[in-house]
Write a structure and sequence with these properties.
Length: about 300
Amino acid sequence: MALPHSLMLALSPTFACRRAPSRLIRDRYYTAARHISSSAALGSPPSSLAGTAPFHTAYVLLHTHDPPAVYPARSKSPTWRHLTLAARQWGSTVNFAWSPDLRVHPQYKGLGEEGAVALSSIPEIYTASVFSIAHRHGRLEIPEVSGQNYQEVSENIQRLVSSSVAVDEGKLDKRLHLFVCTHGSRDCRCGEGGGEVARALRRELQKRGIGAKDVVLGEVAHVGGHKYAANVLVYPYGEWLGTVQEFDVPIILDEILDWHARYQARVSQSGRPSEEMPPLCPPFWRGRMGLDKEEQLALFQRAA
């Protein structure tokens, strides 16, 4: 006898992912009718998502040749582990990312698989992106991150975040970056729902004639919060969105582009980044880089 779908979800989300249609799975977590606007004047309903983004002062992404669809459930990369432990001491998060529009290291094409590094004549090495509270309006690229220089890389990023070193504006990539968690082997909700949202974003950007010179679309590994899938991370601002569905994409992209334009306008007027911008897409807003849970909730309430 088949189990009711609601019971399948309660017992095991993963089991439900394998057996149920995608629309039914996601109805457990999302609601269709939602107010989107980021405008404080229009107001926004209470959100169960605000305050769920993990605190981080910087987000470091190791670029891979392959998308998260082929990532193992849990990384065994020595370089990722060492850099994560070093960066965690001062509030940075390290993850893997893939995008056809991000530079990858030409020599190493693996994922730090257990045993593979030792057997390979090519060391585990990545090109990386860094987004931080010290440069909210751009991305810094690190040409090489490896098991040999991870400590130096971590110390350099820490000095950057603490504002003890100046940011070279000429080296900043000021494009908008959208990253969707599509790490299906970690949780099928991310692989299925995240995959649908990533493909929908790609189609919508193409339909609008928006290319990589303005918006970079990528996919990332586990970000925390499977139940909030699909998760969309908007950088360089560090806005985290959750429970995004495929049919939300056109209006959410409208909001992201409008928010991005208003942010850039404030920077042009004031000469510095504005940290008091209202939350992006309040019903989907999980939080913001540089803010802890209480600060995220406080910002959300001020904008409501």
